[in-house]
Amino acid sequence: MDPVSTTGASPGPGRMTPAEERRLRTTAHEVESIFIQHMLKTMRQASGTGQTLLNGRGQRVYQEMMDEHMGRALAKSGGIGLADMLVRDVLRRQGVMKKPSSQPTDVPMGSAGGLP
């Protein structure tokens, strides 16, 4: 029997199952959503105007729900790119993806590309 299908273990170093990659992308989008929610809340607090569309007892609850909804909607529609950066970083750290580079990192700047 295949150990991946029975234990759910990773297929080995430098590889990731499609299910693991889906979970990674979902988690990265959730992190981005939470970050956007926090950013919206902080921006509102920093504005210091104190004026909102709603006044009364439910104002804070409504604003938190609105921040949560806006954060999720913005992250789902492409967000600010944080989820993609998180996914790329995790894939690089797992050895699944190599870091893009115009020249190898271990070559000094003056010795690459035929420069003297």
Overview of the molecule:
By secondary structure, the protein is mostly helical. The protein has a domain at 15-49 and 56-95. The chain has four helices and no strands. The protein starts with a helix and ends in a 23-residue tail after the last helix. Residues 1-7 and 102-116 have low confidence and may be disordered.
Features:
disordered N terminus; mainly alpha; 4 helices; single chain; 116 residues; 0% strand
* Main sheet overview: none
Provide a count of the helices: 4
Number of strands: 0
Specify the oligomeric state.
single chain
Query: What fraction strand?
Result: under 5%
Q: How much helical structure, as a percent, in the residues?
A: 55-70%
Ranges where pLDDT stays below 50 over 5 or more residues in a row are 1-7, 102-116
The string of secondary-structure elements, in order, is: HHHH
Structural class designation: mainly alpha
Average pLDDT over all residues? 74
